[in-house]
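Let us practice reading a record.
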Amino acid sequence: MTHPHKLYVLGAGAMGSLFGGLLAEGGMDVTLIDPWKEHVDQIQKSGLKMVGYGGERFIPLNAVPSASGLPPADIVFVQCKATHSRSAMTDSIGIVGTETTVISFQNGLGNEEILAGIVGADKVLGGLTAQGASIEGPGAVCNYAELPSWIGEMADGESQRVTKISTLLSAHGLPTFASENIRLDIWKKLMANVGISAPSGIGNLKIHEVMALPEMKATVYAAIDEAVTVSKAIGLNLNSEDARDVLAKIIGPGGSGENKTSLCNDLLNKRPSEIDFINGAIVKLGTEHGVATPVNATLVAAVKAIESHFIGANT
């Protein structure tokens, strides 16, 4: 791949729509792929409506309900829920050609490994972003700020591929940097989700509301501290102060403090959450490495108790 230009976004929720819209606005050939018919139809009819940062405008781009019949892409962003990674990529395998690069911009741990098992580890890059967005309705997304994203090789280190793609994305409206240690960077971002996602969902609270409650704030920090201990057990150089700093930046000015987390919105909309890929992943790794994670285990249990009302305790 010498000059990638055809981009598919697998999963056109808030972040998928935001990324696809920004890059299409910047001149890339973008197709959003999502089974939400009303959303796809509205984008095809009027373009993607983007509001918030940058002002209100309509961005023409292609949107389809499935990948069936699409030719291979140069780049595929996987931005569906982590719970759908395996089925979404398997059902869309035809869009991955010999020169395609697949980038996960999803929450939690394990997404890249799932994708690698389907398309091959050599095709998969890790990604993360500080951007925030929300769906305003079918065909409409709100952009909260212009914040950076990062991509990198899962084996760590620099690569020409990552440099070229990050430069391309930046040139087309999505500020993106090459990471030399994307696993560590993903873990840093994970710290915020470990701390804030479940409390927001359990309490049906905005992020700043979680942090305004002393008991919830203490729980957030305790969950993060456990995750830091687990990260050290698997050989990553994280500390609690850095992890809390990442959280502060994400929820600070220009961040996501006024939002409810995506996990909270999943519970409100009676959808299975990504708890197994966030706090559940910490509990799993803690068990494997002999690290106690009682706070994270309790958060997992509480979220699953809420989920049991609409997906069944044994789902």
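A brief commentary: The chain is about 45% helix and 20% strand.
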